Request: fold
Amino acid sequence: MRISKKLFLITLFTMGIIISQAQETSSNRLAPTPPMGWMTWNLFGVNVNEELIRDMADAMISGGFADAGYNYIYIDDGWQGGRDNRNNIIPDAKKFPSGIKALADYVHSKGLKLGIYSDAAQLTCGGYTASFGFEYQDAKTFASWGIDYLKYDYCGAPDNVNTAQARYNTMANALRKSGRNITFGICEWGQRKPWLWAAKVGGQLWRTTFDVRDKWKDNGDNSMGILDIVNQNADLFPYAKPGAWNDMDMLVVGLYGKGGPSSDLNSHGCSDTEYESQMSLWSMMASPLAMTCDLRTISSEAKRILLNKEIIAINQDPLGKQAEPKIRNEIFQVYLKPLSGGRFALAILNISEKFQRINIPFAQIGLKGNYKIDDVWTHKTISKKSKKWYGCIQSHQTKVYVLSLS
Reply:
């Protein structure tokens, strides 16, 4: 039977739409809200082992982090032991003597999920075995171990965007055919504008910046602190939605300059006020929340920040919107995030080095009517009916409120 060229093209176009919709549905299922968990890299670097992962799984439960929504444990670079005589990727036998499958079983027994790391080249950033050329084989291996998430780096790969798209798409397809639902985190550091293409090639989240350091801002060391990442990510709000997230990198909350990769480049830690701002702004911008401090010895202040269920609820709001910048000047920044139920989250950040008194009429940021104002960090209602916010903010502090029409 012959069909016309026009009918053939219409059929192909329709099939493309169906495939695209199916992939989007799958993506939404894998990451309907920004993933939350704990990652090895910022504090431990490549010094990872199965005892550390088991300890952190235990601490996630005993410390209340799992109850708050943190359910992933991510093993970053340094776990690899090369390939066996059939080219199957294997873990370092000294670091993981029981194997990754047994470790995943332990993590799953706690009600948690396990993430792992690889790279779109022959070697990872740390010089370990990576997955380029072995994508389908490695994806099947990860699935057989019970892996739930793959962070896929880009060290050693060609700079051009077309190659990046092709390599990430190959791994995304391999994960889809692995027989297991594995969330895919694209990590090419925002250099090729992944917000424009990463979801189309199969990613559920993508890094928008270089690595975060344990500092408030760049001090001339060509590194990225909390404020630098906020500024770079602020205008990317149109690209975030359920199953597709702008990843602002890991949380440095609670590290206090204690070492590890996050302390490179004169990164000596932040104040608790600055750590609270990171948690606030990452949540407002619907970024994944990956803790990196040692949960076994975490400070009471860091725990307070990371376990604030009201700020987590803003991050995990099912509407899936990233906050939009409404005011940015040399003194303060204002962000507004639509929430489910017709509510809004409002964040005011003092970027200056001094205490500030600030007045923000709601009409100035596009809101009409009177609003009930609930403070997310003090857990108090500061007004039952208001058309503006006014108050005082410390240097580098971020105040966050939930606004409901009254």
Observations:
- Residues 154 and 188 are 5 Å apart (CA to CA).
- The first strand starts at residue 36 and ends at 39.
- The chain has ten helices and 18 strands.
- The first helix runs from residue 5 to 30.
